[in-house]
Design brief:
Blueprint lengths: L1 E5 L3 H13 L3 E5 L2 H10 L4 E4 L8 H10 L6 E5 L4 H9 L4 E4 L4 H15 L7 E2 L3 E4 L4 E4 L2 E4 L2 H11 L8 H8 L10 H13 L5 E3 L3 E3 L6
Parallel strand pairs: 1-2, 1-3, 3-4, 4-5
Antiparallel strand pairs: 6-7, 7-8, 8-9, 10-11
Helix pairs in contact: 2-3, 6-8
């Protein structure tokens, strides 16, 4: 999943970026409200982590413009502003959650997972298509009664496929979801990850549609 981090504090930005990378998120980090708006116009994100006190354009203004433009992507405000009125304003402008600094990265990740569940209309803490189950909190995949720990990249790729069971995703689409701006991507990176996942979970867990891309099976009851 791809995250846009909008944070002008270098130390905080580096810490959050590293925590997100470790949790298998692709991260694009910008430090200015104007740049954030430009990034959202060009790229597709699964969530925006938005500071409020930004140069160029205040975070609340960024949020207001996003919602006016009909952008429904999740926004989690991450800020030092702890006044009740700031929280109310942020939530009323369309934020999905509001987290006050300082915070533990574990709480940030848990709140992100909760936002994704609400946006998906699903209260379940795991993802499944009836054959394969993926736990976002532990990165464990369960298949045929056996559980396997995935690497960060393996998890990111399988998570992307499980978001749309039955849909065929191309190499470009998969790379877009699991790598950030500044990450170098080898030409065979996707094939390498799929091979590693199949080795753990079975050769049929990810299906290849020749010349088009890859998919996992549709939901089974």
């Amino acid at each position: 999943m791809r995250v846009l981090l909008v944070e002008d504090d270098k130390m905080i930005g580096e810490a959050i970026s590293q925590a997100l990378h470790d949790a298998a998120y692709a991260v694009d980090w910008v430090q200015d409200g104007h740049v954030a708006m430009s990034a959202i116009k060009i790229h597709t994100y699964d969530i925006v982590l938005l500071d409020l006190g930004l140069p160029g354009r205040d975070g609340l203004e960024v949020l207001r413009l996003l919602r006016l433009a009909g952008k429904h992507l999740p926004v989690l405000i991450v800020t030092a502003r702890d006044a009740v009125q700031d929280r109310i304003k942020g939530l009323d402008l369309g934020a999905d959650d509001y987290l006050v600094k300082p915070f533990e990265t574990g709480e940030l990740l848990a709140r992100m997972r909760a936002v994704f569940r609400r946006k998906g209309g699903n209260a379940m803490t795991v993802m499944t298509n009836g054959v394969l189950t993926l736990d976002p909190a532990t990165h464990d995949a369960t298949h045929a009664g056996m559980s396997y720990r995935l690497s960060a990249r393996e998890y990111a790729l399988l998570h992307t496929l499980l978001l749309r069971p039955g849909a065929i995703l191309s190499r470009t689409e998969l790379e877009e979801r699991i790598y950030g701006w500044n990450e170098e991507v080898e030409s065979n990176a996707v094939e390498f990850l799929i091979h590693a996942i199949r080795k753990k979970l079975g050769a049929t867990i990810i299906k290849n549609v020749r010349g088009v891309g890859w998919m996992v099976a549709k939901h089974k009851s």
